[in-house]
Structure formats: structure tokens, C-alpha cells
């Protein structure tokens, strides 16, 4: 028997702790870590995407966590724990468009877990893209009335899904075409629910397309498919 001095005792405790951590913790499988973790957002539907690691078994499962920038604690996404798919809808968790968010993903297999892979910092108000508005056309003589319906978010209020214009200022462009040639471009703000286009030629087919535009950045949605009507 021999007695350990104070420093020797601390060294022994530290060594045993490290051995226990190595034996008791899940093994890290960094070659199984997910790839290209990133947010994609359309109409404030904020979905985290990643890719399957190279040469990994297709039976890998994934777990997702998220947090607001500046918070210390990560929050596990309840519906994205032990999933096989390569995406996780975090729209509800990232519902404030003026906050910055992070998310992270790791893979799980019988051999162990990978390290966490972090997304870039995500700011919904700047990074979401928008769909074009829906339009409904009514013809009266040589006048077309365009009813404009902004795209909606996945978030729900008392009256159903919330319009994107509640969270982001948009303008809408209406393109008027005849014989496949663009004749006029009309622009209206997000408060206007309809646009009246008059003084058109009688008995003529007109086609219209709509587009959402973010005024500050100038970002544009794709144009909607054409909707055509005949004047009287």
C-alpha cells in the first residue's frame, strides 16, 4: 500500500473520469455527419435541409436542434428526432421574421452518433423568397378588374393562415399581354386588393401574369402562370 499525495490524487481522478467518458459516451462517427445543413424559406415556410453523408448507410437517422442567436441553450425539435428524411420544417420555431436563428443536425446509427453540424445564421425577413399572388379576373366591357390574393405563410391566426403581407411589405406587379407581347405593367402595394385596367380593345384576348416584389431589396418572385380573358 502507498499513499497518494494531493496532486497525485487529482491526476488519478481526472484520468478515471476521462476513461469513463470514453467508455460511457456514444462513439463519435464524424464520417457519418450530415452535409450542407442550410435553411430554405418560401413564404416564411422555413425548412432546414441537409444531405446524406457520403458512403453512409441509407438507414441513418437524424436529430435536429435550434436556438435563437444569443441564447445559450439548444432546443430539440420534437417532430425531428430520429427521423430518416433529410429535412425538418422549423416554421413554427422560427416564426418571428426579425430574429436570427441557428439550427444543427447530427446523425445516429448503431455505431454511434456524429458530431453536430451547424447551419449558417438564418434571418427569415431577409432570406425568405415569395410566391406570386393569386389573381382572379372579371371583365366588364373593355375593363378588366384584377382581384389580388397575396401568398400565405404556414403560420395560423384566428382567421386561418396568415398572409405574408402581415410580416413583410410587398408590392405586386401585374403584366398585361396581348398576342404574347407585353403591353403594360401595373404595380400596386400590398394594401390594395384589386386593380382596374380600363380602355382596352373590344373583343380582344388579354393574358395577365402576377409577381411579388420586395421593395427594399428589389427581390422578385417568379411570375404566375398566365390567366387569359376576352373583352366584350
Automatic annotation (TrEMBL):
Domain of life where this protein originates: Eukaryota
Which SUPFAM superfamilies does the entry link to? Fibronectin type III (SSF49265)
Q: Where is the Fibronectin type-III domain?
A: 15-116
One of the entry's Gene Ontology molecular-function terms is: cytokine receptor activity
Signal peptide positions are 1-22
**A Gene Ontology term for the protein's cellular component:** plasma membrane
User: Interferon/interleukin receptor domain location, by residue?
Assistant: 128-231
| Pfam families found in the cross-reference section | Interfer-bind (PF09294), Tissue_fac (PF01108)
Assigned keywords, A-Z = Disulfide bond, Receptor, Signal
- Say which family it is in: Belongs to the type II cytokine receptor family.
- What is the designated name of this protein? Uncharacterized protein
Source species, please?
Answer: Phoxinus phoxinus (Eurasian minnow)
Amino acid at each position: 500500500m502507498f499513499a497518494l499525495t494531493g496532486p497525485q490524487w487529482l491526476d488519478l481522478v481526472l484520468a478515471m473520469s476521462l476513461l469513463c467518458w470514453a467508455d460511457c459516451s456514444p462513439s463519435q462517427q464524424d464520417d457519418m455527419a450530415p452535409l450542407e445543413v442550410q435553411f430554405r424559406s418560401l413564404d416564411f415556410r422555413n425548412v432546414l435541409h441537409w444531405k446524406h453523408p457520403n458512403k453512409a448507410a441509407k438507414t441513418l437517422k437524424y436529430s435536429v436542434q435550434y436556438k435563437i442567436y444569443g441564447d445559450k441553450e439548444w432546443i430539440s425539435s420534437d417532430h425531428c428526432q430520429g427521423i430518416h428524411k433529410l429535412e425538418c420544417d422549423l416554421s413554427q420555431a422560427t416564426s418571428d421574421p426579425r430574429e436570427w436563428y441557428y439550427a444543427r443536425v447530427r446523425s445516429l446509427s448503431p455505431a454511434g452518433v456524429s458530431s453536430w453540424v451547424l447551419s449558417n445564421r438564418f434571418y427569415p425577413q431577409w432570406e425568405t423568397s415569395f410566391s406570386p399572388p393569386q389573381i382572379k379576373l372579371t371583365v366588364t366591357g373593355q375593363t378588366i378588374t384584377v382581384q389580388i390574393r397575396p401568398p400565405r405563410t404556414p403560420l395560423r391566426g384566428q382567421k386561418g393562415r396568415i398572409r405574408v403581407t402581415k410580416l413583410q411589405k410587398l408590392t405586386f406587379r401585374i403584366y398585361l399581354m396581348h398576342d404574347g407581347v407585353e403591353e403594360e405593367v401595373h404595380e400596386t402595394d400590398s394594401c390594395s386588393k384589386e386593380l382596374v385596367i380600363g380602355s382596352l380593345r373590344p373583343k380582344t384576348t388579354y393574358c395577365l401574369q402576377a409577381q411579388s416584389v420586395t421593395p427594399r431589396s428589389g427581390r422578385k418572385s417568379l411570375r404566375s402562370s398566365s390567366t387569359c380573358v376576352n373583352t366584350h
